[in-house]
């Protein structure tokens, strides 16, 4: 698999944004697959775009990216331009606003342009396929890993577990928290402390500092911290360092940490033996598999099925996916993967791209 140059992808995104904004006509665009991304500042979103463009190239198309820069109105204008003027072979969309994007996606449907939605749902819209992450399962797998780690430490699942559950407006974080806490609450000897403290690193640092102070005042100590995303984990690390609680796995005083997503900086902490586990999402696969599904079905004149399995040609963490029927049409939920120090170097993890 070709490794990602994140800086190069960012430059490419900026260039294609300019091209799309110029009102380019439809000539030659039947050989193009466009990806509409929320922003070009976060590495995870750059990697999703690279998944689309790599898959497009593999399938014989030119992959291009247009960037909304966290502006719903801008994204909708760009999508309208794609539908009305560019008229590409297909469009892959990561909606910034799951509600407002529905009108333009309906216009794409009327224009018979195949559309895949990835990462975030497009509410009140019917699209050819949605490829999403199974966020609840991510939380459940983190919970199961936490139970395993606590059992290894104490001989049974017990201890103090802090869940930095994230912003309440994020459906992904809600589902991750629900999955994690549903597992943890099965064990009465685990004390669960739920605290809002993510995704921003500084908020996570402040929130955990407060929890540590309260826990110490009650004569207890924290055994494990779970975060909903890696940016929060960076804040957790800072808090643990400030409180002299940042120790390697297996050493006295080590506070176990479980993180989510697959950011390179956190993967390195897993490899170095400080973070116990990372629940990795298939960032390269979400765009790549969506693009392959578009080519295999609507771009070839057939609807995406709502049952059965699909085996993508590209190399992703998900080797085979299951097709189901969802609110917005055919849907695929990508499975997460839990990695530790022995497996965190997997080159198919987006955070390892370019290394």
UniProtKB/TrEMBL annotation:
Matching Pfam families: Peripla_BP_4
Cellular localisation: Cell envelope
Domain of life: Bacteria
Keyword hit for Signal: yes
GO cellular component terms listed in the entry, alphabetical order: cell envelope
Annotated signal sequence range: 1-21
Keywords: Signal
GO molecular function annotation: carbohydrate binding
Protein name: Monosaccharide ABC transporter substrate-binding protein, CUT2 family
Species of the source: Raineyella antarctica
């Amino acid at each position: 698999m070709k490794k990602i140059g994140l800086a190069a992808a960012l430059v490419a995104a900026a260039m294609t944004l300019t091209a799309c904004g110029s009102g380019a006509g439809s000539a030659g665009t039947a050989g193009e697959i466009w990806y509409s991304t929320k922003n070009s500042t976060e590495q995870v979103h750059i990697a999703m775009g690279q998944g689309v463009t790599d898959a497009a190239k593999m399938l014989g198309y030119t992959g291009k990216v247009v960037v909304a820069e966290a502006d719903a109105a801008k994204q909708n204008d760009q999508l309208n331009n794609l539908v009305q003027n560019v008229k590409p072979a297909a469009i892959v969309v990561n909606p910034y606003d799951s509600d407002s994007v529905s009108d333009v996606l309906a216009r794409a449907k009327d224009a018979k342009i195949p559309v895949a939605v990835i990462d975030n749902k497009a509410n009140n819209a019917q699209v050819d396929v949605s490829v999403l992450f199974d966020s609840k399962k991510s939380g459940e797998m983190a919970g199961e890993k936490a139970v395993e780690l606590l059992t290894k430490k104490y001989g049974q699942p017990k201890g103090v577990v802090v869940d930095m559950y994230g912003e309440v407006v994020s459906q992904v974080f809600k589902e991750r928290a629900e999955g994690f806490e549903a597992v943890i609450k099965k064990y009465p000897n685990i004390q669960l402390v739920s605290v809002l403290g993510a995704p921003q690193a500084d908020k996570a640092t402040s929130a955990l500092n407060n929890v540590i102070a309260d826990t110490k005042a009650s004569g207890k100590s924290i055994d494990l911290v779970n975060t909903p995303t890696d940016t929060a984990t960076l804040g957790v690390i800072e808090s643990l360092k400030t409180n002299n609680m940042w120790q390697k796995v297996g050493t006295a005083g080590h506070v176990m940490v479980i993180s989510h997503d697959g950011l390179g900086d956190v993967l390195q902490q897993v490899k170095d033996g400080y973070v116990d586990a990372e629940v990795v999402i298939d960032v390269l696969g979400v765009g790549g598999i969506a693009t392959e599904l578009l080519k295999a079905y609507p771009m070839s004149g057939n609807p995406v099925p709502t049952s059965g399995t699909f085996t993508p040609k590209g190399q992703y963490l998900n080797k085979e996916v299951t097709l189901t029927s969802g609110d917005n049409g055919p849907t695929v939920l990508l499975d997460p993967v839990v990695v530790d120090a022995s497996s965190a170097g997997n080159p198919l993890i987006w955070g390892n791209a370019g290394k």
